[in-house]
Amino acid sequence: MPSKNDSFAGKHREPMIRLAQLIRTLDYRSPDNNWRIGDTTDSTWGIGQSPQSAKNVFNFFRPNYAPPGSEISKKKLVTPEMQIVTETSTISQANYWYKLLNEPQRITKRKYSLVEKGKLRQHNLVDEETPGLSLFLEEEKSMAVNPSSLVERFDTLFSCGQLSKATKESIVESINKLPIDSNDSSARESYKKNRVIGALLMVITNPEYIVLK
Amino acid sequence: MSKSHSRREFLKRAALLSATGAAVPLAFQLSLINESSIAEMPKDYKALVCIFLDGGNDQHNTLIPYDNDNYKSYQRNRQKLAIPQSQLILPPISLDDGREVVLASQLEGIQSLFKKGRLGIIANTGTLLEPTSKKKLMNGTIKLPPRLFSHNDQKNYWLSSVSGSPQTGWAGRAGDLFLNNNTLKPLTCISVNGEGLFLSGAEAKSFSVGVDGNPKLLWGSDYLFGEDYLDELRIMMSKSKENHLENEYVKVTTRGLDYADKLDTALKSRPPLKTNFPKENKLADALKMVAKQISAHKELGNKRQVFMVQLTGFDSHDNLRIKHPALLKLLNDGMVSFNLALEELNLENQVTTFTASEFGRTLTSNGDGSDHGWASHHFIMGGAVKGGKIHGRVPYPIVDGNDDFGQGRFIPDLSTDQFFWPLAKWFGVPHSDRFLVLPNLKRFNEEALNMMIKEKLTT
What we know:
Number of helices of chain A: 9
Oligomer: heterodimer
Number of helices of chain B: 15
Strand content of chain B: 5-15%
Mean pLDDT of chain B: 91
Number of strands of chain A: 4
Shape of chain A: globular
Largest sheet of chain B: 9 strands, mixed
Distance between the termini of chain B: 19 Å
Helix content of chain B: 25-40%
CATH architecture of chain B: 3-Layer(aba) Sandwich
Number of domains of chain A: 2
Low-confidence stretches of chain A: none
Number of strands of chain B: 12
Shape of chain B: globular
Strand order of the largest sheet of chain A: 1-4
CATH topology of chain B: Alkaline Phosphatase, subunit A
Largest interface: A-B, 58 and 60 residues
CATH class of chain B: Alpha Beta
Structural class of chain A: mainly alpha
Radius of gyration of chain B: 23 Å
Order of helices and strands of chain B: HHEEHEEHEHHHEHEHHHHEHEEEEHH
Radius of gyration of chain A: 19 Å
Number of domains of chain B: 1
Strand content of chain A: 5-15%
Structural class of chain B: alpha/beta
Distance between the termini of chain A: 12 Å
């Protein structure tokens, strides 16, 4: 068993595990409590994995899989979960996370109405069609003026504090360039949301997060 | 490719042979190194397409005994699995010894390609380490591939044609020889829902393409966050890492990021295919994407490509009489439309398609299905194949005979190496490099299958 600092240590977090972590960590809501997320199997628009939908009875990966020709296989180590890492799924997962963060109801067809009573913002359920998931990101948006606190929070919650200093600094630098000030309150809300999603997307598409050490 | 460069590549590959798990004697490796040949720069375009029938295709209900005696024997052994004679409606095929066989009625299009000489059948082929007979098996004097009848191990063997824990597939090793002739090297060995192992070589990597093309990061839109953000996200996702798992992830991501656009541009530069591919047929969807890429080969600048697609669900332990015909129909419709598309592109002589599957199935019935077998029959399709012919010997449908390793698991006459060598040779693998691609071929008669049309030497 290699130690945490060994360059061969780690485990690829399966896309489904990452999806579950995202939904459980953030304030996702399921109005009918059925947590409908639909079929995510497709590797060009989904995440390339879905519960109970492995293509054969041996589940998604073979126990002795290692990427052919890699340093890992030369050492005769195995990384079964990497069998479903492909040139399509790595990109489509990033796109899927964006959609799931930005507008989950576009995938799950569900509407909420925003009612503002003074400072209190409430999201009320307005229709009864096949309820899916919603996400408001209010807590995270309150941190959007300070990208480094956002990144620290996501590093703790998602990557167990395993993001490197350099990666965190790059993310903060990128997010600082996204606009935040506006006199228009709806523009301000959307700027905040953009910063939150932009920062989180850079964390959860980063291999330092994707490989759990 | 300069001579010294090709020689260096060649030596590197020869050294890698020993890592394939096959025991290659040193003297043999040295004799290879003395030869200086390497795949010459080809002028024409050629592609190999593997259709993998995942789960183990039941060959007994694919090519069925038709003459009375053998049909009766088939029926006696298969019981409820036997297709009623009244449902065998396609024209029977005569064998040299007077017997007759017939393709399942769902394979109507395949039968007509066979009749036209566009499709051939390779009989009783399977995984072997050395020529094998029942007598030698019973004496225990024969080396066998690891774990016969096991899905994973046998699939690995079919994809790699070496035993042990293979790290490369034979198509990947063939791809290695031609990488330097291709402009877009990562698009040499392409999987559309296939398996990476088959397409991985020492340098060649399996590249995954979706049935509708490949996704672009955030749909290539800098509207969402601005141009800088999109660039910086790409950079972060493709930055190399010290941790090897992270770095492997980065390598795959980088290939995906770099080639999605190039593939998309090439595909969009071509007129849409006129050929109709059937709907609700995942094999046809994948083959359509393969045909599109083949049509764009000039734009992609690649002279040699290998593709792998897959049809899953063949592991018919139960409900075989319902499940299996439906799968054969998907296979038939997929192959027929793929052939039409290649004719439309006028590339039918330059593309050879073949089927593979981890094993055949038992002749005997388990009551509702068949169990894991060994040898099976396969199809080869294209203008370059000797079609209209069954290559190899169709065993008699009897249990406990000389062909049976128990419960009607048939012992292969032909090894995967003997099946693959004519394909590799047609593709352009030089004779002197044959053992680099198929190390076990040296234990077999490499000329056993005369299944490809001899090409006129082009200048």
